[in-house]
Amino acid sequence: MKPNPTKRLRTAEEDGDVRETGRGEHGEEERRKTVDVSIIMPVHNASCWLKECLQAILQQDFAGSMELSVFDDASTDDSRKVLEGWRERMEDRGISVVISGHNSSQPRGVGFAKNKAVTQSSGQYLCFQDADDIMFPQRVRLQYETSLRNANCLIGCRVQRLPEGSTERYTRWINSLTQDQLITQAYTSHGPTVVMPTWFCSRKLFLKVGLFDEGGKGVPEDLLFFYQLLRQGGRPFRVDQGLLVYRYHERAATHSVTEETIWKLRVDFLQERVLSQWENFTIWNAGKQGRKLYRCMSLTNQKKVKAFCDVDENKIQKSFYTYQESKQRPKPTVPILHYKEATGPFIICVKLDMTGGVLEENLNSLQLKEGTDYFHFN
Questions:
Q1: What is the mean pLDDT of the chain?
Q2: pLDDT digits (tens, 9 = 90+) for 211-270
Q3: Which pTM does this prediction carry?
Q4: DSSP-assigned beta bridge partners for residue 334
Q5: Where are the transmembrane segments (predicted)?
Q6: Most exposed of 7, 192, 237, 244 (fewest Cβ within 10 Å)?
Q7: Is the peptide bond before 236 cis (omega within 30 degrees of 0)?
């Protein structure tokens, strides 16, 4: 196996901007050059996808300096061998390569592997890349340019789903959100409004937010990071161009995260960021999802619910909902109204893109503004 050579420092004449650290004019401490962009890639048993993924990295049209930083999380296939086999081609293209990992009996999880890949990297900007996805040639260049103009933003992009047609509603949601909705729809069940495989940000912003949760399998490390980004005043931003082939398959780590785990995180974040600012509100959906949200709220926020509203005449005719499991006496009862009789602000607990446009038409008929008069929680 070839040793990993130390890549030659570019001179100011070549680069116009040499970034390095050293101590004293005699170089008593080894100097370390930073690069413009580090591609951060966690790997676990990904050998069947690596050729397409790595070839796409080689084909990037970005003119700055790049580095590929890989952490192999206890792969049992030949992922490590495949990665090492691409080292020379990467370095011939001018892309530095850092590969490390562990061979414990069990993987430590995506959050752990990403953190290791970030820690060992030296880029001023971080481009997160899953080993089963494929970059378009302009991805690094366009996201880098966007990051320079939006220093406090987590940059995403539109995606092309593979196989085509898989997760159709989810893919449409990813690609159709407006820039404002990247904030207002952060409470929906789809997760981060800029999806993790498309993330690009400065190292400074990443370190400000903090490392990924390393709880391992079943932990939504991307959603936890995304919510912490918003708490820290960071913002999501999307390049409105398809820059990534986002592969769907049953081995994807996201399938290990349970719906209940995501639900609890979303409820807590909704209460923290939205409901704490409201004196009262209406839950739009008197059915299962609306009632579940009500039951999961704190007692303080339950008392703020002035009504449920719906379009279902059977629910409306019941006229109220009684929270039978409550320990309060008498048990809380909440009116159920037709949506035209209800007043905002609203938390919408009806799934988007599932009513043939009826929900969206009803909201528009009330002349409500998303992010002020209502938020989606669905």
A1: 90
A2: 999 998 889 999 999 999 999 999 999 999 999 999 986 666 555 678 889 999 999 999
A3: 0.89
A4: 321
A5: none
A6: 7
A7: no
Task: Please give the backbone phi and psi of residue 330, each rounded to the nearest 5 degrees, phi first.
Answer: -70, 160
Structure tokens at 191: 């997760």
N residues, the chain: 378
Question: Rounded CA gap, 155 and 235, in Å?
Answer: 9
Question: Domain 274-376 belongs to what topology?
Answer: Rossmann fold (3.40.50)
Judged by phi (left if over 0) then psi (alpha if -120 to 50, else beta), residue 252 lies in beta
Which of 3.90.1150.10, 3.90.550.10, 2.40.10.330, 3.90.230.10 would CATH assign to domain 30-256? 3.90.550.10
Residue 362 to residues 5, 22, 284, Cα–Cα distance (Å): 63, 63, 11
Query: How confident is the model over 4-22, as pLDDT tens digits?
Result: 443 433 333 333 333 333 3
Structure tokens at 164: 């085509």
How does 80-110 read in b/e, with b if 16+ C-beta sit within 10 Å? bebbbebbeebbeeebbbbbebeeeeebbbb
Distance CA 15, CA 64 (A): 9
SS3 203: helix
